[in-house]
Structure formats: C-alpha cells, structure tokens
Amino acid sequence: MASEQRAVSRLIAQAGQMLLAHGAESTLVGDIMRRIGLASGMNEVEVSLSASSLVITTVYDGHCITTARRCPDRGINMRVVTQVQRICIMLERGIIDPPMAQHKLEKISPARYNRWLVLVMIGLSCASFSRLAGGDWSVFTMTFLASSVGMVVRQEIGHRHFNPLLNFTATAFVTTVISAQAVTLQIGNRPELAMASSVLMLVPGFPLINAVADMLKGYINMGIARFTMASLLTLATSLGIVAAMTLIGVWGW
User: Fold this and answer.
1) Within this chain, do residues 103 and 125 fall inside the same structural domain, yes or no?
2) Distance CA 176, CA 250 (A)
3) pTM for the whole thing?
4) Is 77's pLDDT higher than 80?
5) Which pairing describes strands 44-49 and 63-70: parallel, antiparallel, or unpaired?
6) Has residue 253 been placed in a domain?
7) With contact defined as beta carbons under 8 Å apart, do 176 and 120 qualify?
8) Is the dihedral of CA 239, 245, 246, 252 positive or negative?
C-alpha cells in the first residue's frame, strides 16, 4: 500500500500544482487536493500553500508521506482548472480510479485562443470603453489601433518569455505613444479618452480579485503575495505610461 500511497500523493501534488500555476483561488486549490486524496482512499490529507510552491501530507493507516512541489506561474487558464475539477468529481463518484485520474491529468493541456482573435477582441473592448465614456468614432478608431498594436507587443514579448514586469512596461509605453497621437493631432472630440482607454487591457483584475478572496478566506500569505505581484504589474504599467507621456510631451489625462 506504501507504493499506492506514494502514487496518490504524486497525483494530489500534480493536481494542486496545475491549479495553482494556472491562477486558481487558494481555497479551491486546497479543497480539490483534499477531495482527490480522500476519494483515492487516504485517511487524511493536509495541504500548505505558498506563492510559488505547495506541500502536501497524506496519511493512510498511520503511515505518513509528505511531498513538496514548485508551482511556477503559467498564466491564467480556466480550462485547466475546470478539467482538474472534473477529474476530482469523477474520482469521488467512482467513475475512474487514481491511475486513470493520473493519466487524465497528464493529458490536460491549456487551451489557447487564436492570437489574432484575442488581438481584435482586446482592441474592440478598449475602444468600446472610450465610446462609452463619450468619445466619437475617431476616438474609437484611435483606441482600437493603439490597444491592438499594444497587444501585439505584449504577445511577442510574452512569447519570448521576458519578465512580466518588463512586458507590461513596454506594452504600456508603446500603447501610450500611439494613443497620444490623438491628443497631438487633435483627433476626435475627446482625444484624451484614447490614452486612458487603450491601456485598460493591462489592469491586473484577476490577480487582484484572487488576492482579496484569498485574504478574506484565511490565506493571508497567498493573498499578500498575489496583491504584491498585481501592484508591481500596475507600477510597471504606470512607468510605461509616464515614460511615453514624457517622451511625447502630452499629459492628456
């Protein structure tokens, strides 16, 4: 049974690793890991989470196994989270056994939207904000152009695995340089809206929401770590915007 317990411990650790790496809330990560362990026959499962790692302990017939895993950030992807949840439910209902669950976990791959579809949708969403704020179609067009080009920069830098802080700074800089032309050339009725709306794609909303949720539910260290990272991303964005405004000489908003 010791070998089976080790296999279950690895299964639990891999599931938690995938959840934490792809942006799941800490409460959900701990809950899913415990449920997988209990559904696999363990008497007790203890979980400890930190910003970049996790530690689990399984107990079966008085025999204790502890394992630790690093959890590098792999980007927010809710498809991975829902697939792991589905495997947990199938285990609890007896549809699959732990070896089959391990096999299914290994087959999970993050789904990626087409990059050009993402680019267009980001451009439309930022441009729609400018329109809702009172901008005309000229402002809408400039916002769409600036945010779309900024998204290309963000995708290319991310594809080359640069530091996210550098990515956000460069993206904010390029986006603001382009949108500032609306103010310089007086394009549209309220050109300053293009500058404000085009960088909204860089707001780290999901990490901030998870940070608050973690702190409210007792995962203080995780919440602080996530809030700190979100704040650093916001600071990086601000530096890019200020650098672009200084270069162009436009302080529109």
Assistant:
1) no
2) 10
3) 0.85
4) yes
5) unpaired
6) no
7) no
8) negative
